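Researcher: Re-running this chain for the archive, since the previous output was lost when a drive failed. Same request as before.
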Amino acid sequence: MAPSNPDSTERETTRRQLLSSVGAASLVGLAGCSGDDSGNDPTETDAGAGDGGGTATETADEPIPTATGTERNGNGGNSTDGETDQTWRSFRHNRRNTGHDPGLTGPDASVRAAWSFAADALVRSPPTVDEQRVYVGSWDGNVYALDRTDGTEQWAVQFGGWVDAAPAVDDGTVYVGSHDGTIRALDAADGAERWRVETSNRVLSSPAVLEDTVYVGSNDGNVYALNREDGTQRWAVDTGAGVRSSPAVADGTVYVGTNDGTLYALDREDGSEEWTVSTDRRIQSSPAVADGTVYVGSYDTYLHAVNDEDGTEQWSFRTSGGVFSSPAVADGAVFVGGNDGTVYAIAVADGSERWSFETGNEVKSSPAVADGTVYVGSMDDLVYAIDAADGSERWSFETGGSVECSPAVVNGTVYVGSRDTQIYALTE
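Model: Regenerated structure tokens:
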């Protein structure tokens, strides 16, 4: 599909006034309050839990035991903070959630499925990738570890509910939450459980790992900081609303959105509140932090850009629908999908539109940017590769279901899941 030009009558950059406040956060234990969960897909029904029996298919031309913890050190993601190692270890690739690494490459020309793996239910969990395996959750209740080269199942761990969150893999441990309310640490090699923490509601937030701490939200209203060694709580902040957004961690601060439309900046050491910004609708988009600015989408139809130190507004960009997608930041632009079916490229300097690309349905998938290409899924069943400079389509790949899943891009391959139950490895 062709890109469209900016239309000032429909999509505009505004200087809307946001409400900003500074105060102290209340610290609570594991008991929290149940948050607003109205942002979940209204078509969700109990898909049932599987038994870890998915299947891998190589294609040439076509498409729980409780344990106690051990171990660690790491930063929960790559690049912006270190050298590229051709992995994608967390939801938005790095702890700042930028969805970009200048050293990674993806396929530019038309693609095929090098392999696909069939789970026992739909896949919305964004895959993550280390040197050997792809880690992904499914509505069949499993977290899978798949061989990166051929998609064969290495292990599967059954949770007590759907798994929508992206696993974070760091220093031999996989951290992931589930609709069963647990956050678990699993051995990356064999899936053995190292520890688990129980919250009082679903966990759709994807963990961020920095040094000795795991940061993650829960629909019980809390943002948690957990000791990566054993899961013990360092602090918890009760926001009073569900937390589906996945935290970004940058320069001593944790940034995360909530279902009551608030963007929080919390001190990463003790959870104290540095500032908050209120939007008109829920924030389930995950913040990205780059060059002194926090970018986050809201169901108020805007992508917001605020100063990372005090939350003052830099600019707001209006779409024609809510923004569930999490932004990627690369090469002077912010890339984000909209529930209006459009992928946008927005200038970081002033919030003006560079280009927009229309798909055939809502874009809840979060873009990944690699080597001048934007990779993103759509509810129209397609995965798209879009030129980051001008918004022209480089290729699209049709799956058998809606693609809400956010892709991981590593070493010439796009890893992405679909509602057709498949996890795909797409290559030229």
